[in-house]
Specification:
The protein contains 11 helices and 10 strands. The protein is an alpha+beta fold and about 400 residues long. Helix 4 packs antiparallel against helix 8 and helix 7 runs antiparallel to helix 10. The termini are far apart.
C-alpha cells in the first residue's frame, strides 16, 4: 500500500518533468535500492553510480546542452531532489544534490568560458565529483565570520585555513572554495576559487563520522599555503559573498524538496506497517489516533510540497522568492523530523532496530533542520521580511 504522490494534476509540470520523474524512479529502483545498504557501510556512493546518472542526463538537468545538460528549470531541480529523497537513503541523495545543485552551480553561474569548458562536461557526465567548501567550524550560517583567507602572490593565489562538514569532501575531485580576500574589517569581501584534488597544500584533514547520511562522505579540509593559478579565481574578486547567498536560494529549495520526498516515503512505510501489524485484536490502522495522525501528516506534507513547487515555479519565472525560500527551508526541515518521529513511533520496537528503513530515515532527517541554514536562521530571514521597511 502506498500514498499517491504523483503530480499528474499539478499545473506546474510538463511531460518532460514527468519523464524525468519516471527515469529517476526506475534508476533508483534498479540501481540504488539493491546496493544502498552496502554504501551505508562503506561510507560513500560509488563513482560508477555518478557516471551512470550522468549518462542518463540526471546530473546537469539545468545546464547548457553545450556541456551535456538538459536546460530544464527550477521545478526540475525540485523534482530531482524529491525523488532522491524518496529513495529513503539520505546519504545517497545529498551526495548527488551537492554535486548537482550546491557545488557545480557556482561554476555554472560565475565561471569563465575557459573554466566552463574545462570542468563542466566532466561534472555533468559524473566523471568528476564536485564539492563546495564554505562552512567552517566557527562560521556555519554566519558567512561573515569566515576565517579561511586567500592572498594574491604574483600569478597565484595562496589559500590558508580550514573547512568543516564538507560533503563529498573525501572523494571529491573539484572543490569550489570560499575565502576572505578583502582588507581587515571588510567581512563580506569573500571570493570563490577552484581547487582540484592533489593541489599541493590542500588536504583532507580527516573524514567525519556522522549521526546520519552515512553513505555520504563528509570531511574537514585543510589549506596550508595552498597555491593555485590566478585563473582559478571563480567570478569576481570580493563578490563571492553574493554568489554564495544566491546559490543558497537554490540549495534551500533542494533541501526542502528532498525533505518532503523523505517524509512522503516515511508515511508510505508507516501505512504499510500499520495496516499489517496486529495488536489487541485489530490492525494498528484501526486505532483512530494512529490513522488520524497519519492523515494529518499526509495533509501537512502535501501543503509543504505545494509551497515548495510554487516557490520553484516562481523562481523559474524570475520572481523574487527569498522569503518563500526561507519559509520552505524552515517548514520542511521541521516537518520532516515531526513526520519521522511519528512514523518511527508507530513502528514500535521495530522502528528502533537498525535493519528498519524508518530508523535510518529518522537519523538522516535530523540534519535537515540544520544544514543549508538552521531553522532559527531561516525564521529570522522570514521575520525581517514580514514588516515593511
Amino acid at each position: 500500500m502506498s500514498a499517491d504522490y504523483s503530480n499528474a494534476a499539478w499545473p506546474y509540470f510538463t511531460e518532460e518533468h514527468e519523464m524525468l520523474r519516471t527515469t529517476l524512479r526506475r534508476f533508483i529502483a534498479e540501481r540504488v535500492l539493491p546496493q544502498a545498504d552496502a554504501w551505508e557501510e562503506a561510507g560513500l556512493v560509488p563513482r560508477e553510480i555518478m557516471r551512470e546518472m550522468g549518462s542518463l542526463g540526471l546530473l546537469g538537468i539545468r545546464y547548457s546542452s553545450q556541456y551535456g545538460g538538459s536546460e530544464m528549470d527550477t521545478l526540475a531541480t525540485a523534482l530531482l531532489a524529491e525523488e532522491l529523497g524518496r529513495s529513503s537513503y539520505g546519504g545517497f541523495a545529498v551526495t548527488v544534490l551537492v554535486h548537482t545543485d550546491m557545488a557545480s552551480p557556482h561554476l555554472h553561474h560565475a565561471g569563465s568560458q575557459a573554466q566552463l569548458e574545462r570542468y563542466m562536461p566532466d561534472i555533468v557526465a559524473g566523471k568528476r565529483v564536485a564539492a563546495v567548501a564554505m562552512t567552517e567550524a566557527d562560521a556555519g550560517s554566519d558567512l561573515a565570520g569566515m576565517r579561511t583567507s586567500a592572498r594574491r602572490d604574483g600569478n597565484e593565489w595562496v589559500l590558508n585555513g580550514s573547512k568543516m562538514f564538507i560533503t563529498n569532501g573525501v572523494h571529491g575531485d573539484i572543490y569550489f572554495v570560499a575565502a576572505k580576500t578583502g582588507a581587515p574589517g571588510r567581512n563580506r569581501d569573500i571570493s570563490m576559487f577552484i581547487v582540484e584534488k592533489g593541489t599541493p597544500g590542500f588536504s583532507v584533514a580527516r573524514p567525519l563520522k556522522k549521526h546520519g547520511w552515512l553513505s555520504s562522505d563528509t570531511a574537514e579540509l585543510s589549506f596550508d599555503n595552498c597555491r593555485i593559478p590566478a585563473e582559478n579565481l571563480l567570478g569576481e574578486e570580493n563578490r563571492g559573498f553574493y554568489s554564495l547567498m544566491k546559490n543558497l536560494q537554490n540549495e534551500r529549495i533542494v533541501l526542502g524538496a528532498q525533505s518532503m520526498g523523505e517524509a512522503a516515503r516515511a508515511i508510505e512505510l508507516a501505512l504499510e506497517w500499520t495496516t499489517q501489524r496486529q495488536a489487541f485484536g485489530a490492525s494498528l490502522w484501526d486505532k483512530q489516533t494512529i490513522r488520524q495522525r497519519l492523515a494529518m501528516r499526509s495533509a501537512q506534507v502535501e501543503a509543504c510540497r505545494a509551497l515548495i513547487f510554487n516557490t520553484a515555479w516562481r523562481d523559474a519565472q524570475g520572481q523574487q522568492v527569498t522569503k518563500e525560500v526561507s519559509m520552505v527551508k524552515a517548514l520542511a526541515g521541521t516537518l520532516v523530523n515531526e513526520v519521522m518521529y511519528d512514523c518511527l513511533q508507530f513502528h514500535g520496537g521495530m522502528g528502533y532496530i537498525r535493519e528498519s528503513a524508518i530508523e535510518r530515515m529518522t537519523r538522516d532527517a535530523r540534519v535537515q533542520s540544520i544544514g543549508g541554514g538552521a531553522t532559527e536562521v531561516m525564521l529570522e530571514e522570514v521575520a525581517k521580511r514580514m514588516v515593511p521597511r
